[in-house]
Amino acid sequence: MTGILAPTKQLTAADRCDRCGAQAYIRATLPAGGELLFCAHHGRQHVAVLRDKGADIQDESARLSDTSATAKDNER
């Protein structure tokens, strides 16, 4: 094992929050394996603790305010 993380795929409209089912914008990859997906709201609630516990965080919540990304998402 090299310690280098494999690139993660961009979250899509099909990825849903594990807490409420809304579109996921945050992925937490857990150190023991597995991942959790969160909407921006639930991600803000949980990301600090998950990061402290060693999770790798992929945060795409900036796409919510990026109008060009929103247009691309709507085309899918």
From TrEMBL:
InterPro entries: DUF7455. Residues 11-64 form the DUF7455 domain. Pfam families: DUF7455. This is DUF7455 domain-containing protein. It comes from Streptosporangium sandarakinum.
